[in-house]
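By convention, each integer encodes one residue's backbone shape. The lines below illustrate.
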Amino acid sequence: MQNNTNRSYYLVPYFGWMMLFVIAPLVLVIYFSLFDLHGNFSFINYQNFFTSVYLKLTLSSFWYAFLITAFTLAIAYPTAYWLTKTKHKQLWLLLIIIPSWINLLLKTYAFIGIFGVKGPLNKLFESMGIGTQQILYTDFSFIFVSVYIFIPFMILPIFNSLDKMNPTLIDAARDLGSSTWTTFTKVIFPLTINGVKSGIQAVFIPSLSLFMITRLIAGNKVITLGTAIEQQFLVTRNWGMGSTIAVFLIMFMVIIMILTGQKDKGALSNEQIK
């Protein structure tokens, strides 16, 4: 009985942290969303969210988040697969993860210099006779930089899933006459689907709320839910509308986590077969 009491004390910091930094901010966001620009209690912000402006903004945010996630997955999966086959895979994985330790703002400004009119990329184009190109403030630059930033977060869970997979299952599929494509679609990918889902969560969810990259790289030509929240709080000072957008953004994130949060149903690993 005494041990159970002592264990319950250990949960106090956890519940205190959750109340202060998770529950309380959510309650405040919901509270502010119920007031209009003049501080009157109203549901007008929720009505405004379902107008064409904000619905288009939401669809645009999902579209860009989908593109970023799709390109990231297309690059990360073969990269993670290649890493599992290399001799010093942990070293290569570390080299891929290290850029994620650098401050996001520093990396963004680095790309401003690279993609700038007088940057090294345009210098290369000029030497090739292509001429100066406007790379910054385009959809291409926004997606490229976003994919670069999120790639480590997609590679890591996929690498862990591939690394835990028992290689004898692949050998068995090939012994039974499966082609390389069939082996991948019927054996490898299904056994690593949970890693893919974790990577999608780590990329798609933050992609919905990007705002700094849209400011600096896309030049506000790309507007996401995160950018709209920033504008409502800092520009128009409409905290109610900003909080309302934040409420819907949280709801979208929860739905995505539910859709991609399937538990592992028992993929066979090396340890399980041994």
DSSP finds 14 helices and no strands in the chain. The radius of gyration is 23 Å. The chain has one domain: 49-273.
